[in-house]
Amino acid sequence: MFAKGYPEKGQVKIGECIAFGISIDSRHNKAWELAEMLLFTDALAKHGLQKNVTSVFYDSGSATCQFTVAPHIEAFSLEDEQIKDIALQTLSQFEWHGGIEHGDTMRNRNFP
What we know:
The protein is of the alpha+beta class. It has one domain (17-99). The protein has 2 helices and 6 strands. A 4-stranded mixed β-sheet has the order 1-2-3-4. Strand 2, helix 1 (31-46) and strand 3 form a beta-alpha-beta unit.
């Protein structure tokens, strides 16, 4: 699908990256993971929810995004559900209250 030599890991060297006050990181620094995390943090900020998520991490091995909700957000509260709705729109796969959720981004993106 990709040209010979296309790197599977280390595509982006981000060091410490903070978007809208939220720390974002990827295990293998894949470009599409960074793109999804940036879309997620951007959408949170557009809805005024960026202070409700403290960090976002993409586990490249499992292709699953994990994010930490601020301690003042109660599970299944209005803000919690708003964060989930944004994740469903911007993240392909993410952990949510002990389970795995799948977003609808696959049909809307051109990432591998």
